[in-house]
Amino acid sequence: MKLRNIAVLGAGAVGSYILWGLRNTPDIRLYVISEGERNARLKEKSLTVNGERLSLNVRTADELRDEIPEGPDLIIVAVKYISLQESLSDIERIAGDNTLVMSLLNGVDSEQIIKRVIPEERIITSLIKIASQRNGNSINFPVPAEGMGVIYGAETASQKDYVNSIKELFDSGEIVHHVSDDIRKDLWLKYSINISQNIPQAILSSGVGIFNKSQNADFLRTSLRSEVIKIAAHYGIDIDVDDSWSLDPSNGINPAARYSTLQDLDAGRRTEIDMLSGTVVRLGHELGIPVPYNEFAYHIVKALEERNESKFNF
């Protein structure tokens, strides 16, 4: 299966990396799907990635459906988790019977949400590990270190041909990517690291290097992650492994890096805390597994959002 028509839903940091990485890929047509004011802004200003202004094919979902009635070969979902529910109608509208879908959202349940409108067999479980710095419509990515980039894999034998088609597409572009032998484990492992690093640094308003400098911050990190490990274990997924590589400056980790939750708070935006600690709290309650650190962290970040929204200023 040759993937020729590629639609990227979302043009934030993740979507921009995909658009940049596939920009010079031969024999494909690359689209970015956006609506309303965002659509107009992308058409007018485009995106600048690593100093290069991209030439974008910007479409609304209806425009793409008219242009490709059979649907694109691949939809890459790169919206924020908080926008996924409202994006389902766009995904359903543009997808055809043979369209594959990859979700690069943080978290462990976006595929479960997308399967409300797309057959599960055509959803390829995936994740992305990449750092970025954004200033307006300009985004910069360092060269992803070993083990970083887009990671994806088949969960059933029948998905292996689909995964091979995606690999062929990415091989022909500049996206750093890896095919996983256990994508569900990799998804949960990344989820545990996201929670354990994003949330404490957001609360403390500090770069990720804080965990190598403060035993107190590192205690919060390991305590949050230990609760995710227990939840994953209930589903038969063992993620109780050494994660020190994720904080090692020799792996290209910038100690000043501010991850997505803190970036959102800095910019006055709503965070993805519902997908992060919020999901852990929900699952903990459902499974009877205590998760006090994630419950506390959830409410702290929610209070910080309220402060940004001027619900209190004293």
UniProtKB/TrEMBL annotation:
Pathway note: Cofactor biosynthesis; (R)-pantothenate biosynthesis; (R)-pantoate from 3-methyl-2-oxobutanoate: step 2/2
Pfam families tied to this protein: ApbA (PF02558), ApbA_C (PF08546)
GO function terms (MF aspect): 2-dehydropantoate 2-reductase activity
Record carries keyword NADP: yes
Domain Ketopantoate reductase N-terminal as annotated: residue spans: 6-137
InterPro entries per the UniProt record, alphabetical: 6-PGluconate_DH-like_C_sf (IPR008927), 6PGD_dom2 (IPR013328), ApbA (IPR003710), KPA_reductase (IPR013752), KPR-Related (IPR051402), KPR_N (IPR013332), NAD(P)-bd_dom_sf (IPR036291)
EC number per UniProt: 1.1.1.169
Domain Ketopantoate reductase C-terminal, residue spans: 182-305
GO biological process: pantothenate biosynthetic process
Keyword annotations: NADP, Oxidoreductase, Pantothenate biosynthesis
Catalytic reaction(s) noted: (R)-pantoate + NADP(+) = 2-dehydropantoate + NADPH + H(+)
Keyword Zinc tagged: no
Any single Gene Ontology cellular-component annotation: cytoplasm
Domain of life: Bacteria
SUPFAM superfamilies assigned: 6-phosphogluconate dehydrogenase C-terminal domain-like, NAD(P)-binding Rossmann-fold domains
Entry function: Catalyzes the NADPH-dependent reduction of ketopantoate into pantoic acid.
Protein family (similarity comment): Belongs to the ketopantoate reductase family.
Protein name stated in the entry: 2-dehydropantoate 2-reductase
